[in-house]
Amino acid sequence: MKADRIRKKDILEYHESGRPGKIEVIPTKPSNSQRDLSIAYSPGVAEPCLEIQKDPANAYRYTAKGNLVAVISNGTAVLGLGNIGAMASKPVMEGKSVLFKVFADIDSFDIELDTTDPVRFVETVKTIAPTFGGINLEDISAPDCFYIEKRLRDELDIPVMHDDQHGTAIISGAALLNALELAKKKIGKVKVVFNGAGPSAISCARLFISLGVKPSNLLMVDSKGVINDNRENLSEEKQEFSRKTNLKNLAGAIKEADVFVGLSRADILTQDMVKTMAKKPIVFALANPNPEISYENAMSSRKDIIMATGRSDHPNQVNNVLGFPFIFRGALDVRATSINEEMKLAAVNAIAQLAKEPVPEIVNLAYNKANLSFGEKYIIPKPFDPRLISTVAPAIAKAAMDSGVAKSPIENWDKYEEELLNRLGRDDKFIRIAMQKAKEHVQRVVFAEGDHFKVLKAAQICSEEGLLHPILLGHTDDIEAKIEEYQLEFDEYTIVDPRNEKETAEVYAQHYFAKRQRKGVTLFEARKLMRQRNYFGTMMVELNDADSFITGQTVKYSTGVKPLFEILGKEEHITKVAGMYIMLSKRGPLFFADTTINEEPTTEDIVKIARNVAEAVRRINLKPKIALLSYSNFGSHKGATPTKMHEATLRLKEIHPELVVDGEMQANFALDNNLLEEVFPFSDLVGNRPNIFIFPDLGASNIAYKMLQGFGSAEAIGPMLIGLKKSAHVLQMGSSVREIVNIATMAAVDAQTRKRDA
Questions:
Q1: Options 3.40.50.300, 3.40.50.880, 3.40.50.10750, 3.40.50.450; which CATH number does 578-723 get?
Q2: The one catalytic residue among 9, 14, 41, 528
Q3: Under DSSP, is residue 282 helix (H, G, I), strand (E, B) or coil?
Q4: In the prediction, which pLDDT does 32 show?
Q5: Which pLDDT score, from 0 to 100, does residue 180 have?
Q6: Catalytic: 439?
Q7: Which residues of the chain have pLDDT under 50?
Q8: Which class does domain 321-424 fall in?
Q9: Is the Cβ–Cβ distance between 621 and 589 less than 8 Å?
Q10: Is 508 one of the catalytic residues?
Q11: What's the CA gap between 166 and 204, in Å, rounded?
Q12: Where do the structural domains in the chain lie, given as residue ranges?
């Protein structure tokens, strides 16, 4: 998806809808009773205040300081927008705060300072610094950014980093090390040319020299040409990179260069220039959104090139999100007093090394690669790699300890790594990964209610994101009129009106008649049914005219399910179809079943449902770990429900010994592994937190997922139908646009994996 294809209206609606903005503050302690409030505030709060007065370090024990970063800007150099001012930069800073939370579980306040005076900026930050465990400077123009960062680093005893400088430097440094290794070149001998002399370029050049590039082998080019000793009125930072040379422009500087780093503007580097570079050239064209040379032009200019850009739609994306969340995570966890050079180099090496490690299946899943591995198209990790937090953060923490800036050293590294993995859930990026996978092989998804606004809006989003090709069922004139009315613009879509597809409808009717003629269906009835969208759309999937089918927005669940059962039928070896909800929680995706189909499942039904859900979870490359739920724990209560779930557990263990499964158990023990280990240490789920929860009946499961959804504890995706021969799913009536997008994404992934496994 191209960034410029996201509609202005959609962007503004996203920021405005519900609670305006992108962040909120949530209490971390109970606050329901008068006693709670008396402890949280007056008079009880005096006690931690006095403890902090005795020893300021106690602020890390009794307040949020140790996990709180300030994202601070004056809006003078906002990426792509320039000097837009402090207030206008607030959405960007809120967004940066979101990234801190999403990727590293770091809380953040965005602070916009209405001043262009660097001295006043510094004094203001120093004044508020006691609130925070770290300071992330953002979007501050040069040369003020250099002055501000240096003073704050020198005068504060908490980590300070200007991400625009050091984030890009760290990620491109990791890419450089690996690219040089692949090109079989020594860092001390390569000639490097920078195009751009802003904060990012200056910081990158400094870091490259720290990594081993010889200063004499590094040239920097700005808008006026090569920075050399003949130039006058150079800033202090540019003087650092002034060289004795007669070269005047990029074309001359780049001849026989081994490395090009662009941090400037689009289309400044030509194919002819690339052709003049040394053998096995390394080109980092990092201007956003459009690089100094397009990926296609660079790669076609010569065959021996290794290339990176700032874009996600090409290999080797240099993305700051690979660095800053985890750098601050490690720095905060050891209470580092700064982010020093040793820590930056540690981040470089950790990121570089991670790219050489075997890639986990969840990353291959995200990018639909079976064998993603270290090489010219993979020199740095992907942003979705869940190992980043447990790789980069410990490297930072260790470097802080080794360099003497850590006030709270880590003693148990295994425990620390486990804590990092559990902060966000080991599979916290589930829906993002699913969306990435959907884009790799676009599937044709049929929407039965193609003339409904929410369905149309969801289809538009899916189309623009490149998640799927929507096929909209309904009257052509009605759909096109609504597209125009609501100003919906699709990249690609297809409208199909079953009433006008007479030849196709006849083929479908004949096929349906052949399947159902011994079940009371006449050819006349078959033809009549094929005029209905739910039957026509299902038959499109049955006969491979589409890959998946979605209905249910305006019809009862039972009505939507009926054609699926009649036409698609069950997978081989499947005797029980079930409904599954994916609950996106902080601890990762949780799979609930059966939520829609089987009202009072028997013991054997429970076994079949659990087995089918486990297989569905395997298909998306996650290990199934199953808890069978009841109001009883391992025989503590007698009754029909505990007995059913107990017997189902025994049966599953007998016929599927490879499964991690246990029960019957209460939900609180299934969710709290520490509690489970304390009370029932014998359970097979101790140390194996379950991700699949099988309920004893439809009422329990339906209530559970809707309560979680209603409380805002988890986002629900579904229901997903488990056990059908082909991909088809029925929405809950009145689903939101977001819910439709999510289930459509999963439908596309479902269709992909079925083709893969066929």
A1: 3.40.50.10750
A2: 41
A3: strand
A4: 80
A5: 98
A6: no
A7: 1-4, 426-428
A8: alpha beta
A9: no
A10: no
A11: 7
A12: 3-28+37-158, 166-318, 321-424, 433-567, 578-723
What proportions of the chain, in percent to the nearest 5, are helix, strand and coil?
Answer: 45, 15, 40
Q: Give the DSSP letter string of 242-260.
A: -BS----SHHHHTTT-SEE
Q: pLDDT tens digits, residue range 203-243?
A: 999 999 999 999 999 999 999 999 999 899 999 999 999 99
**CATH assignment of 433-567, among 3.40.50.10950, 3.30.70.360, 3.40.50.261, 3.40.50.720:** 3.40.50.10950
Residue type, 632: S
What pLDDT does residue 1 have?
42
Helix (H) or strand (E) holding 111: strand 107-112
Whether the CB-CB separation of 182 and 147 falls below 8 Å is answered with no
In terms of Cβ atoms closer than 10 Å to its own Cβ (0-12, 13-18, 19+), residue 328 is buried
For 3-28+37-158, CATH number out of 3.30.450.20, 3.40.50.80, 2.30.30.280, 3.40.50.10380 equals 3.40.50.10380
Instruction: Give yes or no for a contact between 564 and 459, defined as CB atoms under 8 angstroms apart.
Output: no
The answer to whether the bond into 501 is cis (omega within 30° of 0) is: no
Task: Give the burial class of 109: count Cβ atoms within 10 A of its Cβ; 0-12 exposed, 13-18 middle, 19 or more buried.
Answer: middle
> Kind and range of the H or E element at 561?
helix 557-567
For the chain, the first-to-last Cα distance in angstroms comes to: 29
- Return the H-helix or E-strand segment holding 272: helix 271-275
